[in-house]
Amino acid sequence: MAVNFGSGYLNNSECPPVIKAPTTRELIDDLGGYVIALWTIASLIVLLLCGLLVKTTIIVNKDAPRQWRRKIVWINAIYPFVSLMCLCSLIVPASSSLLAAVAIIFMSNGVSKFVDLCMMYFGGETKLLEAVEEMTVPLTKPPACCCGLCCPRPILTKRYLKAMKMMVHQLPFTQSAYCLMSLYLFAAQLTQPGQIAYNDAFIYLTAVNVLSFMLAMYSLAMLLEITKGKLAQFRYTPKSFLIKVTLVLVKVQDIVFNLLVHYGGIPETPSMTPATYGAFIRDIMVLLEMLLFGLLTHKLYNVPDQYEGTMDAEDNVIGKTMMGDEND
Known about the structure:
By secondary structure, the protein is mainly α. 70% of the residues lie in helices and 3% in strands. The chain has a two-stranded antiparallel sheet. Helix 3 runs antiparallel to helix 9 (274-301) and helix 6 (158-187) packs antiparallel against helix 7.
């Protein structure tokens, strides 16, 4: 779900732009029974995903090590939470900016928790390094895609591992700053989303946004390469793929819809400006994506055999190792 910087303007040559969004009543008058049906379907999706989250929480609390539980629940909570934000935005379009920002920050935290969970699967950073032995840091992975001939090949150490973690852990902070600055500058009428111009803040904010996103994706790609074939019991590869696809779609849709709205690619309706209508369409798309990815994520985290033997390992290895890593 992307940040919607406003729901439109009422332009007047003698007055500054005024943000205008349709009320819930105006939406019903404009779309009639269609919007009520949409809200109903969206509500059912949210309830379904919330139900799956409750089921996952019960299973995880029963079978998974204590240190893993909060991370797993948070990751699985991404999908019902973002869906709920989409539903509320569809009902009250004026709340779209705030709810979208909250959803992005929550999702960013979930991605950060996923990296922590990867370390926990091994039993901590030290155990991960022992498992991969003298492996080199895979700097040639996309999206950096450094040339294999000229790219350095340092041996993986705890220092490099912590750097990879930080590349993902920066995401909640940079995305929070991006959302706050974007909304603030839009409210101050200092930026217009989708405006590609050197004197508009949008292009600079987007650069920060993309850099933050690319760093996280780069780190996730390197971690996947490092752990390849070593976490098959935990279905780490498909889990990593799902969370990366979720992040990519949300961020790409953010930029694409802002550009479409600004350059006339989104029409208007009797009650909705192009910006509002664009956010409306985007919320529907994100809602459907969260349904699909939420179902797949639920299935991956509820395969019974992935937790076999982990409770014993928690007492003997994982708990002690994780406490040691956290104190490094």
